[in-house]
Design a protein that fits this description.
Number of domains: 1
Largest sheet: 3 strands, antiparallel
Structural class: mainly alpha
Number of strands: 3
Mean pLDDT: 83
Distance between the termini: 5 Å
Radius of gyration: 21 Å
Helix content: 55-70%
Strand content: under 5%
Order of helices and strands: EHHHHHHHHHHHEE
Shape: globular
Number of helices: 11
Amino acid sequence: MKPLSTNYKTLTVQEAPVRVLIAVLVSFLFCAFLTGLIGAGLNSSGLINLSGLVDQVATEGGRQWLRFYLLLSNLLPFATTALIALIFVFRERWRGAAGLIASPPKSSVPVVTLFFVCALPFVGWLAYLNLQISLPEWMQRNEDNTDILLKGILNMETVPEFLLAFITVAVTPAIGEELLLRGVVQRRILKPWFGNDHAAIWLAAILFSAMHLEFGGFAPRLLLGVLLGYAYYWTRSLWVPIGLHLLFNGLQVVIAYVTGEFSPEADLTEAPPWWLGTGSLLIVLSIGWWAQGRFGGQEVIVEPKEGIDRHFMEED
């Protein structure tokens, strides 16, 4: 193990995960209540109508107000919840506690990027299998409403529509969901509870998929959550899963804008080639095995002396 630089001293961080969990729950309830108030105000003013999505997405103005509301619906319950909880528990060390100022180990970023990209064919194959499962009527109605919502958001006829759609679909989910699910839940609640990074990654991914309430895409979204969880674990930097999440969602927005089409229920009408999914899985498992041996390890929070920025340093 390499000794820590003499410019740093090790910090013992003993904040109980229960304290972090309570802070998350309280701040989430507050932010969800605030989001509900804003939604009620927009609804009463006639700017949005969630019970009549077909009419809502029929005009540019209706689509823009819907995007604005969805942006707030992600920004407040996710990003703001995480920020409040982190600042309350970790005070001035909140950025370090979430992994926002950590330096990734050398070569870890291209490895996890390759890991993520190579997994996408298997994610597509898993999505097809998930869609073959018959859903109860109430679940299917929810899926239909979600399809209408996505089509409306990704129906972009002007540049302002594209910009707001990109922020709503790509930027705010990438920052908010990763900050809460990976930076807080995975790293600061589940890892201390279970004492195991792998259990924390998988449980956070299950929560990540479940919170979207889209049953037809539960399995592939779960796998995406796992990929993002390992991207955080191996690089120690939350900016890496944020960047991958942004890339994944942002590419879909760009494609929808350029082609003028987005039809979620028609994307997987035929089974992807079995060899593509199998090959993708084998490659990903190989990369993951190597990355775990190279980058898996414990992180040490250090308190720098005056004049030196706080950050995470790693034990080798």
